[in-house]
Fold this sequence. Notes:
Layout: H1 17-24, E1 29-32, E2 39-40, E3 56-59, E4 63-72, E5 86-93, E6 98-101, E7 116-123, E8 129-135
Antiparallel strand pairs: 1-2, 1-3, 4-5, 4-7, 5-6, 7-8
Amino acid sequence: MPEYKKPLPSLNNPRTKPFWEAAKQHELMFQRCPECGYYRNPPAPRCPECLAVNDDWVQVSGRGKIWSFNVYHHLFSKTFEAEIPYNTALVELEEGPRLITNIVGVRNEDLRVEMPVEVYFDDVTDEVSLVKFKPMTQSA
């Protein structure tokens, strides 16, 4: 695998470790409160809805829609130079949580709010699979 030169998530953070371990297995998991069912993202020690301190990690569908997006034309970091222009998006999953990601498999000019998307796992190193999204296929 070629060397990946962009920033990578910390795999040692105990709060986010289950998320990244699941992503490496190509599964999308979020922390969910067993008391009220609220999905927490980012993971937190206490549910912001009911203040419960318990949590479960549960697999979600990986389907959602673009809630918001931006296309960057200005270079902020040399490590992203080859991708200019590139997008970042806020995806809202069917289950409710939102996450910041990239949309792949579509031209930036074709992105739109409410576009249905599905999870895509980008295996960037032997240890890290980044969670990205792509336009939903008709069969999904």
